[in-house]
Amino acid sequence: MLIQVRDLKKTYVSYERGSSFIDTIASLFKRKTIEVTAVKGLDLDIAKGEIIGFLGPNGAGKSTTIKILTGILHPSSGEVQIMGYTPWKERKKYVMNIGAVFGQKSQLLWDTPPLDAFHMNKAIYDLEEKQFRETLDELVELLDVAEVVRKPTRQLSLGERMKCEFIMAMLHRPSVVFLDEPTIGLDMISKEKVHSFIQEMNRKGVTFLLTTHDLGDIEELASRIVVISHGEKVFDDSMTVLRNFLGAKKIVYIRTDFPSHWKGINGVKVLKQVSANETELELETDQLPLKDFIRMVNERFTVIDMSIDTLPIEQIIKEIYKKK
Ligand SMILES: Nc1ncnc2c1ncn2[C@@H]1O[C@H](COP(=O)(O)OP(=O)(O)OP(=O)(O)O)[C@@H](O)[C@H]1O
What we know:
It is a single chain. By secondary structure, the chain is an alpha/beta fold. It has two domains: 46-243, Rossmann fold (3-Layer(aba) Sandwich), CATH 3.40.50; 249-322, Alpha-Beta Plaits, CATH 3.30.70. The protein has eleven helices and 13 strands. It has a six-stranded mixed β-sheet, with helices on both faces. Strand 11 (268-275) and strand 12 form a beta hairpin. Helix 4 packs parallel to helix 6. The longest helix is centred in the middle third of the chain and has 16 residues, at 188-203. This is ABC-2 type transport system ATP-binding protein. InterPro entries: AAA+_ATPase, ABC_transporter-like_ATP-bd, ABC_transporter_ATP-binding, P-loop_NTPase.
């Protein structure tokens, strides 16, 4: 295993501050502690080459976990082994092997071109000139930013800047890359570019842990989904299993030549009567298999139009969040 997390716990301890003057004075003598357990015994195994979609509602403990895995934060207890390193113990050596991209935080320098920041990283990571050149040329070509990297960062569009953030994170050829909301604020085309870049890097063997609230990122990229809620893992499996989480449900839109009636049919629920002849249905295929449903529809109605979809992933994730 490339990443191994065992019974990871993190409790933050803070002190309650009084709101009144008297409370403030009193707190100088006796401070009331507040404990928040952000991560409550997390186990996680990630193999080389996986792209993990790491999801959870606000306050679930995602950032806390990522901070521990990148070595920024010490856990309260538990073990983490990433490529043989314990991140918070051997941070200097460890960071040579990892990269990170934060959608909301820049690693570039505002007033200078990204190219200067790339050279700064070359010095920090002590990269050989030849390797640095080769990697830089490859990344610049892949992301199509030959002109962009020469302009001051403050003049770049968000999409251009994000591409440069990726170059910054990948120059030292890390094996594991942590992505935190890497497509936040990007338009569809820039998102696609970022997605295909991540996929290309993944084909070359890079493992990604992707934290995002954007389910488009997850659907496009993740080979496995890990969901945490209130500091505990509530789901860890493939996208296929996730899609079947609420049972084998399908959403059927159907337009018939005359008004259709669905009352009393086992496994069929009307979600929306779009118009007299158009209906949106939820089909429970455990109770009424798709082939039987289609046969029944053909016997009863003349179908003008029909579409059959899986449940929207948003709905499934919402149910998983509620699980805890
Ligand atoms: N430095 C801190 N001191 C005290 N409590 C903290 C601290 N950092 C985080 N917490 C608390 O720990 C819990 C988990 O927070 P965390 O930031 O890890 O969640 P998250 O899943 O990343 O949320 P979001 O999606 O909103 O970024 C929250 O209840 C939060 O208030």
